[in-house]
Amino acid sequence: MEPIYEGKAKRLFTTEDPNVLRMEYKDSATAFNALKKADFENKGRLNKAITLIIYRMLEEKGVKTHLVSDVDDINLLVTRVSILPLEVIVRNVAAGSFSKRMGITEGTPFQKPIVEFSYKDDALGDPFINDDYAREMGAATQEECDVLKKMALVINDTLIEFFLKANMRLIDFKVEFGRLANDSSTIVLADEISPDTCRLWDVETGKKMDKDRFRQDMGDFMEVYEEVLARLQK
Ligand code: UDP
């Protein structure tokens, strides 16, 4: 069917059902606002498989998501939504841009999780914003911001426990949300949750098991994604 959108890591296609889209996971990796790019065999398959496991688990815990069903190695069916132009980031431990911005050593745990928003705009470099910016940019109402934060914290609690059972520490992650195309008052979790969008450290060794291996040229990039999937399948 028709391609309707192509992003850095995924493509979206229409299906016979106007409310359902097919999401194809690509093999490309990007970092630093796509300044760094490369293709990795199996990346699409691994991120699709990991996202599927996580979304099914979240659905079981009562989190509403866009997931409809599995299709094949690299495709999922998802409900059509209009994506809010916000990246919702939850942090349990200082890392990445937090450490850089605040001068706090990577690995410093927080007393409570931090929720933050970035405005999705590549030309602006996805700037850090607050609820008032989100409202004035027309990205989300205050009520929606409150819902996003609440949902993000529930997802965080659920994911921390889930990854811990697989011997991984959830350092931080990014999620995106959408309003249902056929009911804009309902917000659901959309996009992916994978080692591309989470920081995961091995509990015992602290080994990085996420996209930081690509960002920092650490090697064994797809090998650790394979390991994340294998641990979640156990
Ligand atoms: N993240 C993401 N997409 C983005 C920005 C961040 O998936 O466009 C994820 C990132 O992988 C990490 C978390 O969100 O798990 C926090 O990222 P941070 O703000 O530290 O930015 P980064 O260091 O990735 O620039």
Question: Number of domains in the coordinates?
Answer: 2
- Give me the CATH architecture of the largest domain, please: 2-Layer Sandwich
**Average pLDDT:** 97
The count of DSSP E runs of length 2 or more, i.e. the number of strands, is: 14
What share of the residues lie within helices?
25-40%
The number of helical segments is 6
Structural class: alpha+beta
Given as residue ranges, the uncertain stretches (5+ residues, pLDDT < 50) are none
Q: Which of globular, elongated, flat, extended, rod-shaped describes the shape?
A: globular
CATH class bucket of the largest domain? Alpha Beta
Rg over CA atoms:
17 Å
Helix and strand element order: EEEEEHEEEEHEEHHEEEHH
Query: Main β-sheet: number of strands, strand sense, barrel status?
Result: 7 strands, antiparallel
Percent of residues in beta strands: 35-45%
CATH topology of the largest domain: D-amino Acid Aminotransferase, Chain A, domain 1
Distance between the termini: 35 Å
Describe this structure in words.
The chain has 234 residues and is of the alpha+beta class. Helix content is 31%, strand content 36%. It has two domains: 3-81, Phosphorylase Kinase, domain 1 (2-Layer Sandwich), CATH 3.30.200.20; 82-215, 2-Layer Sandwich (D-amino Acid Aminotransferase, Chain A, domain 1), CATH 3.30.470. It is built from six helices and 14 strands. The strands form three sheets. Strands 8, 9, 10, 11, 12, 13 and 14 form a seven-stranded antiparallel beta sheet that branches. The longest helix has 24 residues, at 142-165. Uridine-5'-diphosphate (UDP) binds at residues 87, 89, 95-98, 126, 172-174, 197-199, 211.
